[in-house]
Design a protein that fits this description.
This is Charged multivesicular body protein 6. The protein is built from 9 helices and no strands. The protein has helices spanning 16-24, 33-40, 52-90, 94-125, 130-154, 158-161, 169-177, 182-197, 225-244.
């Protein structure tokens, strides 16, 4: 049986640093593989925390995506509203034609309002001092959500638009709720009526308006005493009439 010399080198251990500590120290320091890996390896992945700014930007992008979807769908609805207005004019029903155009204007105003809101949000979220504008961003997101909810109510589909053909109560509610100018809708109605009937609108006159009859010239000859008395009498009577009125 072969024996190794006393001073022969020992075999290498998997953790040489642990072996040296056990040989040179009088007290044994408990070391585990897990604690060794945590202190020496440093390969644990670091988790990225989602900040409030990241969440606000994500919400803004989601709203923008919804807006693009609504724009495509509401374009179909507004085209149908125009077709209904023409059909009502052909039947001589101007009231329902006006209501259809008012709904169309209301839907278009919602899209314009939402687009402006999202543009403002993009400016706020790109600001360096986000902590100062965070409150405005949250408020803007809330306003954008409210407008999108209003647009979502308009997304009932073509069946909802077709109710204008037989029901007027829902359309009258839109007329009372919206703030669309009556003159703006009536101008579009007149243009559609001219298109349906084929009668062109009257042109605005370019020639100057005729002047009113000129007033009589002031007499240059001196008035007689009798005429002056009559004139003063008329003035007094006119003043009395004005005072009584």
């Amino acid at each position: 049986m072969l024996t190794s010399p006393k001073n022969a080198p020992t075999a290498m251990t998997p953790f040489p640093s642990i072996q040296v500590l056990e040989q040179d120290s009088t007290e044994c320091i408990p070391l585990t593989v897990s604690s060794f890996n945590k202190s020496t390896m440093g390969n644990t992945p670091s988790t990225h925390k989602i900040s409030a700014q990241d969440k606000a930007i994500l919400d803004m992008k989601n709203q923008r995506d919804k807006l693009h979807q609504y724009q495509r769908r509401i374009t179909v609805l507004t085209d149908r509203e125009t077709a209904i207005a023409k059909e009502m004019l052909a039947k001589g029903d101007k009231k329902r034609a006006l209501l259809a155009l008012r709904r169309k204007k209301y839907q278009e105003s919602l899209l314009a309002k939402t687009d402006a809101q999202l543009e403002q949000l993009e400016k706020l979220t790109s600001s360096v001092e986000f902590a100062l504008v965070q409150k405005d961003v949250v408020f803007g997101l809330q306003q954008g959500t409210n407008v999108l909810n209003q647009i979502h109510k308009e997304m009932g589909g073509l069946d909802h638009v077709e109710k204008l053909m037989g029901e007027t109560a829902d359309a009258i509610a839109y007329q009372q709720a919206s703030a669309i100018s009556c003159y703006e809708v009536e101008d579009e109605l007149a243009a559609l009526e001219a298109e349906v009937t084929g009668v062109p609108l009257p042109e605005v006159p370019t020639a100057g308006l005729p002047l009113k009859d000129s007033l009589p010239d002031v007499p240059r000859s001196e008035l007689s005493n009798k005429d002056r008395a009559k004139a003063r009498q008329r003035e007094r009577e006119e003043q009395q009439v004005v005072m009584l009125a």
